[in-house]
Design brief:
The protein has a six-stranded antiparallel sheet with strand order 19-36-25-34-28-29, with no helix packed on it. Strands 2-1-4-3 form a four-stranded mixed sheet, with no helix packed on it. The protein has a four-stranded mixed sheet with strand order 6-5-8-7, with no helix packed on it. The protein has five domains: about 5-110, Listeria-Bacteroides repeat domain (Immunoglobulin-like), CATH 2.60.40; about 115-200, Sandwich (Immunoglobulin-like), CATH 2.60.40.4270; about 205-295, Sandwich (Immunoglobulin-like); about 295-370, Sandwich (Immunoglobulin-like), CATH 2.60.40.4270; about 375-575, Galactose-binding domain-like (Jelly Rolls). A hairpin with an 8-residue loop joins β15 and β16. It is flat, with a radius of gyration of 38 Å. It has about 575 residues and is mainly beta. It has helices at about 10-20, 270-275, 570-575, and strands spanning about 40-45, 55-60, 80-85, 105-110, 115-120, 130-140, 165-170, 190-200, 205-210, 215-220, 225-230, 250-255, 275-280, 285-295, 295-300, 310-320, 335-340, 360-370, 375, 375-380, 390, 395-400, 405, 430-435, 445-450, 455-465, 470-475, 480-485, 490, 495, 500-505, 510, 515-520, 525-535, 550-555, 565. The chain binds calcium ion. Calcium ion (CA) binds next to β24 and β35.
Length: about 575
Amino acid sequence: MSKFKGRARIMAFAVGTAMLLCGSFTACTPTPGGPTGPVDEWAVTLDFNDDTSTPRTVYVDKEGGSVEEPADPAMSGYTFKDWNTQADGSGETIAFPYTPSADITLYAQWDTRQYTVTFDAGEGKFTDGGTTVSIQAAYASTIPADQLPENPVRDDVDPDTGEAIYTFREWRDVAGNAVDFTTWTVPAEDTTFTAAYRSIYSRIVTLDLQMGDGYTQVFELEQAGDDIRDRDVVTAAGERVTETGAYPGYRLMGWSTDPAAQPGDEGVISTNDLFPIDYEVLTGDVTYYAVWQMEEYVATFQYNYAARQEVYASYSGLTVADAVTPPETDPERPGYLFAGWYTQSYGGSLVDFTDLHLTAHGTYYAHWTAEPVETDIFQAEYVDLTQQVNMPGYSGANSYQAVIVTDSKDSGAMVDDDYRLDGVSMSAGIGRFVSYQYRYGATLEFKINSDKAVSGATLYANLAMEIFGGITIGPDGDNKVAVYVNDTAVNYSPINFGGTPGSVEQNWVSPFQEYQLGNVDLVEGENIVRIVVENNTPLGGTMAATSFITDYIRIDTHGGATLSWSPVYDNVTLS
Ligand SMILES: [Ca+2]
């Protein structure tokens, strides 16, 4: 839509101008929600026609109201001309003060600015004896080859042969970089380039890295003793080209003067044999092309559950040029639905196989969703624990399934028969509960399906306290742990975790007890019950907040609905 290039970068100018310009109107109240003003005023919209600035609208009285001439807006690389009723300037040019007779949009018109590009002959001269040539060029344009000046010359001569020692090499910018005039465009400022020369005795060695980015590294060896070491050769990203991984997916096999050379071809020189490149061995300028071989990788797909710690499928010989695709047939697991291929055995993220290319071996893990279990007891150790990262305990932190604690000394954590563990049995008498929720925001989230909406269900939780006795936790206050059912807070009675902690395997835990938290309403379909720590009251050690520990929650619908959920058994079986 724009006929100008390079406008997107100059928003700051145009916006700044627009604000200044706003002050020069007779009325100036940009109206939220668009140019719909009062019925007795005309809306006059100024479109800066620069693809970046937001148009400004002002309102003038329909009874002869007028707009004063705005200050000229500015845009880098362009000169403001005037305002026109058409974006392309084909409409009416506006004179000020301007009296509208309808709502109208006025478009800024711009002329492209010319800048001076100077070519400095440096240590040489142009044939007319001059040292500089300047041309005028339009902003954002390129300079055609026939508008570049002739190459300047240096008159230094070899005293023995009378031959000119230097020849023109290239034009360089102020940073000393060679300029490619096929791609360089005129910036919004004057520019100077300086001639660089080379000695007829020097040797220019070009190392074309052939990494697909067109990048070459160019060296000039001027005299005996100069050399190029392999460590000097770097990629466009500044990494040593001989370093493993410099070109992900490829291995450097050597160098050749033939750009089409393949690994093993005659004439391919190993990196060790080529470097150092000494001035003395060069008879003239030379270009060496890197010769690469694509590495081969293996993509492995794992069943990823306790009873099948094995490979489901694997594909070898994959290069960076091959797209990785998952097996055509999804793996199967009794009692589970396949949930996709993930980057990690536990947690991680779903792999996007769109245009996926390997630069290392790839391993992908099946994740599984258990078929729903009908139950009214929802064990905390079977919720999704993938968000449990660096959860603090008394000394040190744990993540993921490691927030589950196994009680082997009868604290009262419950084992129940609603759950079956595929291929793995839990020892009788061992209960599990979730600890490590000792920081603000720590959350256990239960996703529970109800077959119908029900009101007045009763929510219970089997809870205990570890290490510390005599602490009260409630829905408010310094020891707040909130319980939400579908984002509605449950106003439960504060619980005093008194009594004497009893010993379990890893912790001191008071006996678990089932507490009634309150009456809740459930919707048909998915219901979210969250237990969220919302306090910063340290409990001792590295525990940054106060919390209970959770064995399970229970919901009694009093016969009003049947509940189910998909337990994440793999929390236990993959640990
Ligand atoms: Ca439990």
